[in-house]
């Protein structure tokens, strides 16, 4: 099983939920008993604590091709300006981004901020010009607008050489060549293949890194009625297992909590499922700690140096929706 971690950037209504639903359906981990209406990317159960807004939602799709299965973690990005480094924290978990753009509306100013952060972090963009079925679609103009936007945001040459897919999430297909006779006939396969080809696997997703001491930087927190506090992040090194003794390290403060991991949850389709272990490179959620928070490092008790975390700006406390 190989892995990809990507973020998706899209203006509201450009079709992100519809497209991700299609990936889930066609990728084979979508469950028949879950309604498409359970749209995870739309859920509004935001938690706010210490001014940190919790907007990242992770969906995971599996794609089997030529005998190899790849799990693709797709993280939603907040569609607004940065609150306390949140956008960067989310983007620091991934190796590439999908910029999804409505073929009639084109790139919107509201997604510029997140796009600029993604480019500045050196992430590889993959562009999906969506809703190409719209009668008012301006497909090639919109493609050029994305290029101009990237250029204006100082994208490097490799980033400017982005692959583009043309899609109708509503009709369930994506292609690279709209003029091809079979452009609409391969469902989402061309998009799956492009993601896997273009976006690198996480550098630390190796057995060697998985054998090191466990370390994970907390990116988001939420609370679950059964499991209590859930900390989500990408495992930097090592392997997380239930019952493992850990502590939370806060930059400048040292140990802020000591405890045990009760559950390790991995993303599967629209849900998170308890797993026996989560390895370096994967984005997982863990329960068991009650006060650890965003930007803390969860690690083995003998590790005393936290991972580098982006500072959290206090002014975010004032922000309301
Ligand atoms: P989100 O806000 O980005 O998650 O967008 P949604 O997936 O909820 O879609 C917003 C609206 O656009 C809905 O009315 C969808 O039916 C419509 N829509 C989504 N994908 C397509 C598409 O490929 N073509 C067309 N014509 N409409 C679409």
Description:
The chain is an alpha+beta fold and 321 residues long. The protein contains seven helices and 20 strands. The protein has helices spanning 16-27, 86-91, 112-120, 139-152, 157-160, 189-198, 207-210; strands spanning 2-10, 48-49, 52-53, 58-65, 68-76, 96-102, 124-130, 164-168, 173-175, 215-217, 220-224, 228-237, 239-240, 245-250, 254-260, 263-268, 271-274, 278-279, 283-287, 297-299. Strands 10, 11, 12, 14, 15, 16, 17, 19 and 20 form a nine-stranded antiparallel sheet that branches. It has a seven-stranded mixed sheet with strand order 4-5-1-6-7-8-9, sandwiched between helices. Strand 16 and strand 17 (271-274) form a beta hairpin. The longest helix is centred in the middle third of the chain and has 14 residues, at 139-152. The radius of gyration is 19 Å and the shape is globular. The structure holds guanosine-5'-diphosphate. Guanosine-5'-diphosphate is lined by residues 10, 12-18, 130-131, 133-134, 168-170. This is Large ribosomal subunit assembly factor BipA. Keywords: Cytoplasm, GTP-binding, Hydrolase, Nucleotide-binding, Ribosome biogenesis, RNA-binding, rRNA-binding, tRNA-binding. It catalyses: GTP + H2O = GDP + phosphate + H(+).
